[in-house]
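Quick review question:
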């Protein structure tokens, strides 16, 4: 054998009534067959872009007896149709690719058993790496297939599998290498036959099963597949780029607005609600020179503002040098998240390099006893001293507070303390159900609990002259059309090792890697990343509950990232169409604001098309209006 790698596409013969039966229940067998032929043909085309890989059609059909390629196998009663016949049936026999394909019959009654046997048959044929992909993921990026084989080629003494996650909780690809299969085939087979394939728990349970045995699990970026009619709008957008209607959010790509520089994962605090908890405190953080080059590229693409965070960005010795580069060389605005003591000297130095373009963002979660129980003893007093030092240096810090269950009762008292210390702005953050909160669901309050606490806080804030900037942001959105947020459309995030993500909360999650600055330039990632293309083609109105909601054009479906992680945690279908977990808090807030302003649902987002697109440049997502000096510290996502 000259080719050591095999890519197998598991498929069914494209026959009416035999494919996409769940979809056919909604759109009919003829249209379901048309959709499946389009999906299968597209997957074949993606596979054919690979080089040095043998291509296999692993066919399952009631009329096809299984064929076994491995040595010593019993002779089959019949063989599956030649791959060339399938390609001809799809109208693809004139492109010269049919010679690259071979056929393989699937063996087994259940999907997990059939996948296991595809691995067994191909490894028995002598392949050193095998990846199996589905046949119902529209416009599956060939780059992800290449990445799978790259991961399988990396040394790993523990053995590994590679998984390509889908938005519904399954996977579009699973792969492993011959060495792993020789020693751990039983583990992989048990995981595939034991996991509930076809459910929202498929990926999570398969990954847990193989990881529990000591195997390394490597994940590819997220993609989508088509199971029912709710998946068709996204499929059509992915297969019809640049369509005049229902077009991608944020396009044409006129330029970046804001960049989140996630400069380190290192942190000295044990916060139980930290979304960054599970990200490795790895070596290999970008150097000062690399961060300078990244910032240069961001500015070249139009970025006007930067947010620096971690981990604890104060653990970077070059933090002030990076700030100085942003504000001095590029004259751009910058904000920094921190959660510990800033001395008088450090505050003065921050003010100096900030050049009037810097605003500090201080994390504090509740009054002293609550905050210190969550973060660390003495943290509350350290933050208050930091605030005093920053105010004395002429800076205007914003305090950020996560709406955790133990925080809510003391919000108003905390606000009074902050105002007495010279704080003028408070920003509220809904809990990110990633990292620490995956183990501490008791810290996540109900929407009703949050609403009551915020209502009390708003009254206290009005009395003492403290601006809760979320309220101002929500009011602005009554007249500005929203469609999810601007992450990936006008904003990006860069993690400590130079990997680019749409959103800072997804930093460290391989499912949301858009590119790597150590391998690509930012403009290439910005304009051609499949991960960003998938996000830009997702619309809030794709969710059934959002499509029927009277406040959707103001809310914009809120945060897709919070929705994704909350759904994953509960082993429910996730991705961009997952339900927003705090709708019972946010929707009443918008309804109340609408009533106060005398705005009807039909008047929200004036100028918006039903698809979520908009002729106005504000239509790409939240935070696209009023970004002037007065609104500098304002966040539009809650």
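Suggested answer, residue by residue:
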């Amino acid at each position: 054998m000259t080719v050591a790698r095999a890519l197998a596409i598991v498929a069914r013969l494209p026959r009416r009534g035999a494919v996409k039966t769940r979809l056919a229940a909604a759109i009919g067998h003829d249209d379901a067959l048309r959709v499946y032929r389009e999906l299968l043909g597209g997957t074949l085309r993606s596979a054919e872009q690979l080089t040095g890989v043998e291509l296999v059609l692993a066919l399952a059909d009631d009329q096809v007896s299984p064929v076994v390629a491995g040595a010593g196998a019993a002779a089959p009663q019949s063989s599956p149709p030649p791959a060339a016949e399938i390609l001809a049936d799809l109208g693809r026999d004139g492109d010269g690719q049919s010679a690259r394909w071979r056929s393989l019959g699937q063996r087994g009654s259940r999907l997990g058993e059939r996948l296991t046997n595809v691995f067994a048959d191909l490894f028995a044929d002598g392949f050193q790496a095998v990846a199996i992909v589905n046949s119902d993921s529209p416009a599956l990026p060939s780059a992800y297939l290449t990445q799978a084989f790259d991961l399988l080629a990396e040394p790993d003494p523990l053995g590994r599998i590679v998984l390509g996650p889908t938005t519904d909780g399954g996977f579009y690809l699973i792969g492993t290498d011959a060495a792993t299969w020789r020693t751990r085939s039983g583990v992989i087979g048990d995981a595939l036959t034991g996991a509930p394939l076809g459910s929202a728990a498929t990926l999570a349970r398969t990954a847990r099963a193989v990881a529990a045995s000591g195997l390394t699990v490597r994940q590819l970026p997220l993609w989508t597949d088509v199971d029912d009619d709710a998946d068709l709008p996204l499929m059509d957008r992915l297969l019809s780029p640049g369509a005049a209607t229902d077009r991608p959010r944020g396009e044409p790509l006129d330029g970046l607005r804001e960049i989140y520089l996630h400069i380190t994962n290192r942190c000295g605090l044990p916060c139980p609600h930290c979304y960054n908890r599970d990200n490795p405190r790895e070596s290999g953080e970008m150097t000062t020179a690399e961060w300078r080059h990244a910032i240069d590229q961001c500015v070249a693409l139009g970025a006007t503002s930067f947010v620096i965070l971690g981990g604890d960005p104060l653990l970077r010795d070059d933090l002030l040098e990076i700030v100085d580069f942003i504000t001095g060389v590029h004259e751009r605005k910058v904000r920094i998240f921190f959660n510990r003591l800033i001395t008088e000297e450090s505050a003065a130095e921050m003010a100096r390099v900030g050049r009037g373009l810097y605003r500090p963002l201080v994390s504090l979660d509740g009054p002293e006893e609550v905050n210190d129980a969550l973060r660390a003893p003495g943290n509350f007093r350290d933050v208050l001293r930091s605030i005093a030092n920053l105010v004395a240096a002429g800076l205007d810090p914003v305090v950020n507070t996560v709406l955790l269950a133990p925080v809510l009762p003391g919000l108003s008292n905390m606000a009074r303390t902050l105002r007495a210390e010279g704080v003028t702005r408070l920003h509220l953050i809904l809990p990110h159900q990633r990292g620490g909160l995956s183990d501490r669901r008791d810290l996540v309050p109900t929407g009703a609990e949050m609403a009551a606490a915020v209502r009390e806080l708003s009254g206290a804030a009005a009395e003492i002259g403290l601006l809760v900037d979320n309220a101002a942001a929500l009011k602005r959105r009554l007249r500005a059309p929203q469609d999810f947020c601007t992450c990936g459309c006008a904003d990006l995030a860069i993690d400590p090792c130079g990997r680019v993500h749409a959103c800072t909360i997804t930093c460290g999650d391989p499912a949301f890697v858009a590119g790597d600055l150590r391998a690509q330039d930012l403009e290439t990632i910005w304009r051609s990343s499949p991960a960003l293309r998938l996000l830009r083609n997702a619309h809030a109105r794709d969710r059934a509950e959002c499509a029927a909601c009277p406040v959707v054009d103001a809310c914009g479906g809120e945060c897709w990232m919070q929705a994704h992680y909350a759904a994953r945690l509960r082993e429910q279908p996730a991705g961009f169409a997952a339900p927003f977990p705090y709708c019972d808090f946010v929707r009443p807030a918008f309804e109340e604001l609408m009533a106060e302003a005398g705005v009807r649902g039909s008047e929200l987002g004036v100028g918006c098309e039903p698809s979520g697109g908009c002729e106005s440049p504000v239509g790409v997502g939240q935070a696209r209006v009023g970004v002037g000096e007065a609104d500098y510290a304002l966040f539009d996502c809650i």
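Why it works: The first helix runs from residue 21 to 27. The chain has a mean pLDDT of 87.
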